[in-house]
Amino acid sequence: MMEAESILARRYAHAFLSLWNTSYSAENIMALKHALDYFNTHRPLCSLLKVPLITPDKKQEALSDLLIHQFQLPSLFNELIALLVQHKRAFLLPAVLHALYHLYQERAGVMMVTIASSFPLNEMQKSRLQAYMERVIGLQLLYTYTIDSQSIAGIRVYSDTILWEYSIAKQLRALQYSMNEEIG
Description:
By secondary structure, the protein is an alpha+beta fold. The chain has 8 helices and 4 strands. The chain has helices at about 5-20, 25-40, 45-50, 55-70, 75-85, 95-110, 125-135, 170-184, and strands at about 110-115, 140-145, 155-160, 165. A 4-stranded mixed β-sheet has the order 2-1-3-4, sandwiched between helices. Helix 1 packs across helix 6, helix 2 packs antiparallel against helix 6 and helix 4 (about 55-70) runs antiparallel to helix 5 (about 75-85). The mean pLDDT is about 90.
């Protein structure tokens, strides 16, 4: 995305949040994350939003159905969609959602992280890991869990801005780096 479009998307996001002064719930942050993931895996959809043959009403209807009904974002997002469609900038919606996602987390004092492990974690392991990560990061964290089949053993916690890892792969990388330093 061009820098000008990114700046414009952030401006729409700031304006939207200044009007949307409701409580920032974990459900809304998760819904935004799911919508972003959808747009990231369906990039051609964004190109369709630039096609002038598709009427503004159809664009608005489709985007509203997607965000409000499928991802369960608050109905106030209809106003954002209508504004973007009216300004012929519906294609900016994924970038605006991305900016909203980050601003939303910042204002709510939370961070969305993914925990990838080489094995399924039980509830006690999850609880201990969550308490440790919240203490280290200093924010309330929202979690998604995944199994990393590529990992030999260990855990990786990551978001858009942090990465914490305790794994055999990390130890092997550190060993390789130190050996390269000694040789090189």
